[in-house]
Amino acid sequence: MKILDWYIVKKYLSTYVFIILAMTLIIVVFDTSERIDDFVDKKAPLKEIILDYYGNFVPYLISLFSGLFAFIAVIFFTSKLAGHTEIVAMLSNGISYRRILRPYLMVAVLIALVNCYLANITIPAAAQRGYEFETKYLKNPYQNSDRNIHRQTQRGSFAYIESFRVNDQTAFKFSLESVADGQLQSKLTSNYARWDTAQNVWHVYNFIERVMTDSGEVIRQGAELDTLITLTGKDLSVRINKIVVTMNYRELNECIAMLRLQGASNINEVLIEKHKRFAYPVASIILTIIGVCLSSRKVRGGMGLHIGLGVGLSFAYILFQRFSEMFVQAGALTPAVALWLPNILFLLVGLWLYLKTQK
Question: Of 63, 80, 81, nearest to 20 (Cα)?
Fold first, then answer.
């Protein structure tokens, strides 16, 4: 680390922190003005608003948009260096452009690594408290409107539910089938079943069970039966896109494995969250390269032009990410391709700008 490295690193980090504080203040002001009526109507305590809601909501947004904050920071302070002809002085003293770029990349990699750790380990635990606050004070109780729900609970075992009522954890037209080698082994049907949150079992009511044996079919029926399967009432009582943000990396992988086993249709939302936790931090490195290349040359219009270009590219990146996620929902792209495609394209733009930048 030379004097030049420390100089750029300090400039980068101080500006990055300033941008985060400024954007955080703006976000909190706008969000508070939008939600103040809900806070008052639901009588949310001030301590819970500050610690449980904003104390978890703000770090999540900072981690999510860390790449864009880094990009704006690079544009802001590098255009000032260019405006003061400091970049020209560095190049005139024989320092290569690649050498100038090195401390930028060091900070960008550090930001990416820190945000990867936060997104996968620290923030999910904090997000759980924020989710509980939203459920208690901001959101109306979730009502599962899905019909004809099919899940594979384990290899060869399948559950069917016509509809599920969240408020009393009741599944209507509940049935379980066991299949081996393509042959039906048993089938349990009932009018309804209720998930017991205390005992973690399904209470099945008015059931009929058919079991296939070598000697023929055995039929058993009764008023109530307890059964335990991997599908729980909680799985049917929450919005998957809300609960996945509260999972750490290990829990996220376990959730994906379970949804694949069940054949769930909403697995793409979980896969999007998984790839987002790595694609967004890596964007800090790519956008840093683009930011340096755009703002390192002194141009007519000065900092204003650089900041305008930076904001424009930031919005372009966000829109690109959102459109990619929409293509996943439409089935046109896989989650991995959709989340990494904007990074790949912007990396190509960054390399092209680097090759074209006056050195």
Answer: 63
